[in-house]
Amino acid sequence: MGAGPVESRRRMHHPVVFYLVCLILVVVIPAFLFSIVVMKRTTEAQERIFESLLRTSTSAVNRAVEREITSMFSTLNFLSTSESLPKGDYATLHAQATKTLEGTDIYFLVIDQAMRQRLNTRVPFGTPLNVASEPVSARLALSRDERMVSDLFFGRTAQQWVFNVYMPVRLANGEPVLLTLTKNAEALRRAVNPDVLSPGWNAAVLDSSGTVIASTDEKQKTGQPFFLRVVPSLRLGVSAMKRDGVDYQVVTEFSSLAGWRMIAWAKSSDVQAPAVSSFLWLTIGGAVFAALAAISAVGIARVLSRDVRLLAHDARRLGQGERVAPRPYAISELETVSRALAEAADARVKSENEVRFLMREVAHRSKNQLTVIQAMLNQSAASAENASDFAETFRKRVAGLARSTDLMIANATQGVNLMELAKNQLKPFTPADAERVRIAGPAVLLDPQASQTLGMALHELSTNATKYGALANETGIVSLSWTATGEDLNLVWRENRATIDKEAIAASRKGFGSVVLERMLGMALDAKLDFVVHDDGIEWRVTIPLARLRDEDVHQQGAAQ
């Protein structure tokens, strides 16, 4: 049963080029088929987007036209409030309307029931006027007594294609007349903006009979029937139709205000041309891409095979403990692996050196610790009055040494900060009023040996202050300060407001604390000590060469990290 997976792996044992070609086939063929599906969906989506944009475009044309007509109705409402109208003072009304419409391409007319023009601002007042050029829509507006918009017609006075907007009113004598604004069809061209249309599309405004009012297509002339004769029967929205063997796509929208249609149209072949072109390019591009990918796969496989053999050679050298130099590779990822192998070789050598250094350091520090503990044991036994006193004194000294050791281990490479060491050693002796213990000084780094010695010294000074000095009462103050001047560290321990006991002070100078201060500081750190007894407490002044506080090996190791 165990031979099955092995046999399967043997059957799958092929060179890199085989897998690269398979990868290309697996990726390219489904991607090509998927691209066809996506392109079809995209084309359909684009068609819907085009339809939406075109409907938006026709809606924009519709809104522009209806804004023009609404503005004309508003102007008629304004003119209907003229005091000259009910009086029949057409000369004054002509002057008012001319001034109101100055600078526009709109003209004001008043038409009576007989379809005669009583006023027309196209010509000076008093000029003989013709009957209305489009009486059908005018009579309809009078008979319905409602506002209306006419179809396109050729104005005899204007001598061009125009349309009217009617508003029926009654004069003071009850006679109905039509207040009319007439506008040139040419002025609506700005409402049919070709910039909002997609390429290949045209738009036009048609009246209710299918006559072109304005168009973006120069072939569709104003006043001529639109070339698609069935426009009046087309449903609103998007439609497809054929004319003279040519398929068209048509978008229409109806204006309820004017009764006109806005239409956009294009040849179906023009609309579908981008999709056909995209499919052709996709097919050609897919074939070319597959061929280039296969050729590239063969070349990449050769480069990979060569580089993998070099990497395998370097890996064997690393296993034998040799240094490995990074190599340049054509593939950046393989170059990264090569750098990683070189770094691993360097790290291995460095780790071996660090292990040897740490072994020496552990042996050295263990001996120092044993020597210190032995000295603590001897001194505690010599000064203890009984076994309980010995155990308590020895326990506290070992605890102080442990605190120094914790700091030393935590900061093995960077060095122990003197401020942190001082706070750590004095914390167990600090009374409830923390202001009675004051510590100040600049940052000074200590090597492990110096931190142990100074930690023990601070522990003993704190112990003596608690037994005999400033911390033995409720008001005493202990101040620890230091400064670094030149090549020396000047450390001062000062006790204030203490009750001086000469005999106790004399006895304390024979204890372990004085041994630590005078002997160990002096011997281990080349310290110079001065002891001063003040009226309110003792003072220790210690001068230590800075060079003895910082081990060069620790300094170099911390700098390297």
From TrEMBL:
<keyword id="KW-0812">Transmembrane</keyword>
<protein>
    <recommendedName>
        <fullName>histidine kinase</fullName>
        <ecNumber>2.7.13.3</ecNumber>
    </recommendedName>
</protein>
<feature type="transmembrane region" description="Helical">
    <location>
        <begin position="279"/>
        <end position="301"/>
    </location>
</feature>
<dbReference type="InterPro" id="IPR036890">
    <property type="entry name" value="HATPase_C_sf"/>
</dbReference>
<dbReference type="GO" id="GO:0004673">
    <property type="term" value="F:protein histidine kinase activity"/>
</dbReference>
<keyword id="KW-1133">Transmembrane helix</keyword>
<keyword id="KW-0418">Kinase</keyword>
<keyword id="KW-0067">ATP-binding</keyword>
<feature type="domain" description="Signal transduction histidine kinase HWE region">
    <location>
        <begin position="361"/>
        <end position="443"/>
    </location>
</feature>
<dbReference type="InterPro" id="IPR011102">
    <property type="entry name" value="Sig_transdc_His_kinase_HWE"/>
</dbReference>
<keyword id="KW-0808">Transferase</keyword>
<keyword id="KW-0472">Membrane</keyword>
<dbReference type="Pfam" id="PF07536">
    <property type="entry name" value="HWE_HK"/>
</dbReference>
<keyword id="KW-0597">Phosphoprotein</keyword>
<feature type="transmembrane region" description="Helical">
    <location>
        <begin position="16"/>
        <end position="39"/>
    </location>
</feature>
<keyword id="KW-0547">Nucleotide-binding</keyword>
<dbReference type="GO" id="GO:0005524">
    <property type="term" value="F:ATP binding"/>
</dbReference>
